[in-house]
Amino acid sequence: MSEQQIQKVKVKRLAHVGLWSSDVATQARFYRQVLGLDLRNTVDSSTDQDIDLENASVFLSLGDEHHSVGLFSDTRPGAGNGRNPFQRTRLHHLAFELDNDAELAALAARLNQSGIELTLAERDGDPELGDTLWFSDPDGNRIEISVTPDGSLTNSSVPSSGRRARLRPQGLQHIALQTPHLEQMVDFYTEALGFDISDWLLRESVWLRCNTDHHTITLIQGKMDIDHIGYSIFNGPELLTWGDNLSRHQTPVLWGPGRHGAGQDLFLRIADTEGVHIELSAELQQYYDHDVTTPPRLWHTRGSSTDGFLHRWVPPPMGSSTDGFLHRWAPPPMGFLHGWILAAASRPFFFRPAQPHSSSSQHHQSPSPPHHPP
Q1: Which pLDDT score is estimated for 119?
Q2: Which domains does the chain have, with CATH numbers?
Q3: What are the distances in angstroms from CA 127 to CA 58, 121, 151, 296?
């Protein structure tokens, strides 16, 4: 088959994320109790009780899909010596889905032609679910590609029907990865997996989309690891409900509530029990049929305009990631007076109490978003 005959295949959605865990039982309890995921363990999926998870792989779901998160007991060797340290990442693998078997075969042919080593296996160990492709991206992250099973969730942005029994995200939305090979990773995900570029802050960050969502993957220049995992929620006001829920579970809010410039979504960010950052996101910018040829927005330098573009309401935490961050939006040590926000003076503007004699010049205004190409 000639190169011209192997067309580019676009993956359709992020299906699930696999995480290494040093304490699977504690991690699983967090995702069940705080985020509301259901336990779908490969050994015993019928019980809601804690089971012996010391050496188990645990799957947790938000809906009809098999799972949104997989937790894998971390049995990897130590970090190595100072001269040849291992690259330790908390990411076990990423999984994406295609619409049908023909697309899966076409993608396998395209990857094989590019010299990418492939492995074919049964999906989730179940032959009835069909085959899945396994390979690695330029950073060595393991990638799983399969076909969306019949009857599963295909769009996490669609609100679930009926009244929810408990607070939980609508679905897995995006993942942000730190990479030391930014341009190589962008080339791989655009050429091999069909992603489009939505925004690019050159030499720093790239936002990639594979469906109507502004981004499914964000790539950030840095040491290889997970930056955060994003889950969609119904709307902006639900962030307030989440704040109360997180306070009840004594889970501090690390960043937000705020609005990103890239993607224009409302968000707040927390961390699971092993430090993986989780972002709850609402009202993410959408790309529709008439937007498919929209060129990416390119930002060449960081300055006042790009800072407003990246983080329109609240600045990011000080320091690298949240190391050394003072938890500006977390409860104070005693947690008595202020619930889940530190103080009124530190709140985003929509939490600030009204001032009866304030002038219009005292009102906060968010920077204007960048102009969208027609």
Answers
A1: 93
A2: 7-75+88-150+169-310 (3.10.180.10)
A3: 19, 9, 17, 40
